Amino acid sequence: MRLVFAGTPAAALPSLAAIAASDHEVVGVVTRPDAPVGRGRRLAPSPVAEAASALGIQAVKPVSSRDPDFLAWLHSLAPNCCPVVAYGGLLPRQALEIPPSGWVNLHFSLLPAWRGAAPVQRSILAGDEVTGATTFRLVEELDAGPTYGLLTETIKPDDTAGSLLARLAQHGADLLVATLDGIEDGSLDQRAQLETGLSWAPKLSTEDAEIRWDAPAVAVDRQVRACTPSPGAWTVIAGQRCKVGPVSIPPNSDSLPAGHLRITKSAVLVGTATQLVELGEVRPAGKPAMRAADWARGLREVPGKVGS
Asked: What is the residue-wise DSSP string for the chain?
């Protein structure tokens, strides 16, 4: 099939590579416009734009997918189907109707669970033991289209949103190629999503990432892992915002009042609503991350409590 691929972040790269290596023909790529990155806020192309350039595939970066020039470009390529992975923009009906076989999205959850922008983060935050990925046909309603295939993935006790997303992106690439193969040869049927088990996954904000030390230790651990690497779990220490992660729950540990700090020669411990948690790394604003024990040795005055 002739395909136009849509995607933006690094999580889309395994799928683009797998499709480019398949029998399908990628005739174009759609990605988000260049965005500021780093401390200098220099404009840089998306990971997908860079990968398309390396593959010799034309990439367009429409500010709006309703742009008549973009729609004309898409019409001119006459794709049979448009696979999508984490594109990051809504597609209007005019665009959805161009490819005869539609736009096929790889979504990193077991739909209808966790429809939305942050399914991996929300799954960890909720304490799910199993998640997965689903391929489905895009419709105008968010993540509500009929599904083609799925895979399951166990969430490990130490998984962060970053590590879990990386696995799902790799395994999901094969699922997406198999879905495109099945659409081409007519062996796949679409299945309407059920409304049972429906949940929503809005993007996590900086405010969502402030650690709630008055929660149980297991919830603190989930929150930190769900917010790693982005937006980054944080707390206030001695009046300064610091990013924190990961944390661990020492076996047979005692307790401290929520948010209270205990520093030993080898560990930095914080109280929660239940038992203590041990901080792995601390990154003060504008400084590199360091082991929590090393960070504590550099303190001039040890604060008695963390949090705002």
From this structure: -EEEEEE-SGGGHHHHHHHHTSSSEEEEEE-PPPEEETTTTEEE--HHHHHHHHHT--EE--S-TT-HHHHHHHHHH--SBEEEES--S---HHHHTSSTT-EEEEESS-TTTTBSS-HHHHHHHTT-SEEEEEEEE--SSTT-SPEEEEEEEEPPTT--HHHHHHHHHHHHHHHHHHHHHHHHHT----BPPPSTT--B-PPPPTTTTB--TTS-HHHHHHHHHHTTTTT--EEEETTEEEEE--EE--TT----STTBEEE-SS-EEE--SSS-EEE-EEEETTS--EEHHHHHHT-SS--SBB--
Phi, psi dihedral angles at 4 (to 5 degrees) = -115, 120
In terms of DSSP bridges, do strands 59-60 and 25-30 run parallel, antiparallel, or are they unpaired?
parallel
For residue range 59-112, list pLDDT tens digits in order.
999 999 999 999 999 999 999 999 999 999 989 999 999 999 999 999 999 999
pTM of the entire predicted model? 0.94
Domains (range + CATH), the chain: 2-107+135-145+155-185 (3.40.50.170), 217-297 (3.10.25.10)
169 pairs with which residues across the strands? none
Burial of 102 (0-12, 13-18, 19+ CB in 10 A): buried
The β-bridge relationship of strands 42-44 and 25-30 is: unpaired
Q: Which residues pair with 3 in a beta bridge?
A: 26, 81
Check whether 303 has a pLDDT greater than 90: no
- Note if the bond before 112 is cis, omega within 30 degrees: yes
Task: Give which of 88, 131, 141, 80 is closest to 110, Cα–Cα.
Answer: 131
131: its two tokens: 């998640």
